[in-house]
Amino acid sequence: MSAHAEHAAHEHAGHGHGPPIANQSSRIEPPVLGMFLFIASEAMLFGAFFTAYFFVRVVNPEAPSWPLEGFHLPVFVAGVNTVILVTSSFTMHWALQSIKRGNRTGLKAGLVLTFMMGLAFLVTQMLEYARIGFNPADGSFGTIFYGLTGLHGAHVFVGLTLLAVATVRAFRGHFTPEHHHGVELPGIYWHFVDVMWIVVYATIYLI
Amino acid sequence: MARNPFRSEADAYRFLLLTIGYFALIVAAASLNRWVGLAVFAILSALVLWRWLGTRSAEPPVRPAVPLRSDDAERHILVIANETVGGDELLAVLEQRSEGVREEVFVVVPALNSPVRHWASDEDGARAAAQRRLQTSLERLAAAGVDARGEVGDGDPLQAMEDALRTFGADEIVISTHPEGRSHWLERNVVGAARDRFDVPITHVVVDLEAEAS
To answer: If we measure between CA atoms, which residue out of B61, B49, B4 comes closest to residue B22?
Structure first.
């Protein structure tokens, strides 16, 4: 006859030594869950910017004409940039699938390609800023345009930093088919950056 | 309740592809006419919501992650109960199941909480109360000669069962509830939902604590 509760929280509570151990659910690994929760908070941040954008657009007396007169958006260049970013998500996914199958060459190639395409996106966006013909101080449209695309650009920069770390680690042989969180988490983040760009491109440039 | 659709990079990638398709259709419709675009947006959003809410029924039954031992002399029973774990009916079932074999009983007591506290992540009180119930229950089981251990589980009894199955290779799940009319779990059809969700034999035991006390 032996009966004992395994839950360590009881022991902690009884002795008052720090908080109880975290309750871990079975559905998802904690690091992945952490990344998704972080992304959820990021999505809310973007949501605030989109709210401001749609507010400006709806209350504008010149609506439904959009963008406003005097503002010209480089739809084609941004479209090419969109293709580049979407393709980078494909290569990111390929990189992760490669390491899951034990293909380290595919992992390295996928990460390098993803990084290069992300960098190309960011450089193109900077060139777009230099030539677009208006600045953040040019009314509410200019402010929200630079706010949204700049916020996204900052996320691309963070994603590139994560990718750079993952790439260096990949070349040092840190990842195996069993252990590749260092690729999976940047991959999730990169897809989020891509999703947000599709929303930004569709709403600001196209619709 | 719908499940979280994001559990891996592959899920995020799938979501990206869906996003591309979603916005491509909306942009294409909006290029024809603003109101057509709005209609497509509404229809697609409703479809996505409907699909997401329907994901649970499409999922295959959950099996114990820990492989069962081939030893026929052992029987592993997962007991899920809140206040009724020390009831006579449950003890009788456990004794019956352990006849001629060595039983290992794992008790899970869900940390039941109010919806407001749940959404506020204020579950310390619920977990402490569940811990006390678990301790009392284990002592009663020990006194009855049942070899049991246990833990406090998720506030959702189905989630608590699934969590336990990840670490405990159960031959059977025993769900102990109050009688009909006094049981929130029966009202929510927890037993039926568990039978649909888990690929493990499930026994439902009704414990009438009021009748036992009188």
So the answer is: B49
Distance to chain A for B69, nearest Cα, Å: 21
> Does A99 or B184 have the greater pLDDT score?
A99
Give me the half-sphere count of Cα atoms (radius 13 Å) on the Cβ side of residue B162: 21
Using the Cβ of B136 and the Cβ atoms of chain A, whether some distance falls under 8 Å is answered with: no
CA–CA distance, A150 with A91 (Å, rounded to integer): 24
The whole-model pTM stands at 0.67
**Minimal-distance CA residue of chain B relative to A2:** B147
pLDDT band at B87 (very low <50, low <70, confident <90, very high): confident
- The DSSP call for residue A67 is S
pLDDT value for A141 = 85
Residue B147 in contact with partner chain A when CB distance is under 8 A: yes
B41 vs A58 pLDDT, higher one:
B41
Question: Can you tell me the ipTM of this complex?
Answer: 0.81
Q: Check B9 against A36: CB less than 8 A apart.
A: no
CATH of A28-206, one of 1.20.120.80, 1.25.40.10, 3.60.40.10, 1.10.10.10: 1.20.120.80
Helix (DSSP H) and strand (DSSP E) numbers for chain B:
10, 5
What does the pLDDT average to over B31-46? Answer: 90
- A202 CA: distance to closest CA in chain B (Å): 7
| DSSP letter assigned to residue B202 | E
